[in-house]
Request: fold
Amino acid sequence: MQELHDAPLAPLTTFRLGGPAHRLITATTDAEVIEAVREADDSGTPLLLIGGGSNLVIGDKGFDGTALRIATKGFSLDGTKLELAAGEVWSDAVARTVEAGLAGIECLAGIPGSVGATPIQNVGAYGQEVSSTITEVIAYDRRTRETVTIPNAECAFSYRHSRFKAEPDRHAVLRVRFELQDADGLSAPIRYAETARALGVEPGDRVPLADARETVLKLRSGKGMVLDPEDHDTWSAGSFFTNPILTDDDFAAFRTRVKERLGEEAEPPAYPAGEGRTKTSAAWLIDKAGFTKGYGTGPARISTKHTLALTNRGGATTEDLLALAREVVAGVREAFGITLVNEPVTVGVRL
Reply:
């Protein structure tokens, strides 16, 4: 294991923000991950697990403890069964499954970060979520001090949530197993309307896998959602806020406020989210509350490509970013009575 002290953490995040860690360990095997976790737990040292850093907001003061960077490798494909090490780069793994002619995660192309984070957040985009293909998660259980295999049914997956997110200090994800589909080189049914339009097909149709992946990459790039070190519009955590899910009563009240603010003809986005619940668009809320693309004058601004992405324009601090996020949250709440929830994990700070 590599060990550094007073180590910068900002370069390990897609925001390029945050202060140093008292100690930074890089683990390249499952055994090293477990050893580092046990050592921290035994000594009572605060522990921060870092994968690709694409969903992480670290405070300017850094982390007074041990930061463990999981850099394990492993890609194993047996028929339609896929096992990935937690440290594998997610976007690279998606590309390899497409090359292998297997469907199920092709519309999750271009999402930055590592494999180990995908079940924690139940990563999803363009009509797919990892929960639909994950069969098992292999993790180190810090409570029982043993390696456990957790089947999909026990992961408590929901929209951008899981048991791992609900108990953030319990499990260190080591490996993730997936069941993909051999559809003779075709994608899973295209479920997202924007993707279907871009492909020139109807929702529910299948297309060549490579076409699905390339189309999603183009859509994401157009929104600044594919990481480019040279483009500050991509120095973000992707979508900073989750899409609100409202009860029927709350949605009715929200709809009334929309009409009062925007006129009787205005209708907010509405998507079924289970019985008695409706999901609306955080991007729409932000835009209609007056925070348009490129909003801001300081070093932290809304992306010029997508209102959901808050970006570091270079030279920003975490406090700059949080000040912008708080301004957006307050503005949306005042305009529409909805409180946005941040998607990235915060370390040493709170929104």
In short: The radius of gyration is 20 Å. The mean pLDDT is 96. Residues 156 and 293 are 35 Å apart (CA to CA). The chain is about 25% helix and 25% strand.
